[in-house]
Structures are given as structure tokens and as C-alpha cells.
Request: fold
Amino acid sequence: MKWANFLHFYQPANQKPEILEAVTNQSYRKILDILKNSKNGKINLNISGSLLDLFDKYGYKDLFDRTKELIKEGKIELIASAKYHALLPLLPQ
Reply:
């Protein structure tokens, strides 16, 4: 059996800055730090487009840099999804 660690980083596009900061410090940064310090840790990661926009808007450049570094080290494989994927079920066939 193979096991794939898959994480989905998401925040709504209208997330309050103070909540974004708390979630980033309590979760996203800690996960990236654990991966950086792990010898064999690897994950598949999806970061929603709305969250990437928030990181850019509020100056979380360090998260972009850390993620790029972990991708280069082979510890993160990015998985894609629609930017506002919660709306996908509402689209007509």
C-alpha cells in the first residue's frame, strides 16, 4: 500500500487579516518548518488561489520563499485546483 500525504491550505478571499495571521503562524508556517527539518518528510500540497492572493496582499513573502525551497528539495509536490473551487458545483454543465 502507498500513502500520500495531501494537505489543502485554504482561506476565503475575504478573510480578516488578524485571522489570516493567526492561522498562518499556528499552522502553515509550522507545517513548512516541520518539513524543512524532516529528513524524509514529503507532502502533496494544494494552496488555494484565494489564499495565495491574501499572502501576496499582506506581505507573506516568506511563505512563497519557503514553499519554493521545499519544492526544489522534493519535499512538496503542488497539486492544482480552481481558484474559487467552492463555486465549481454552481457552474452549469
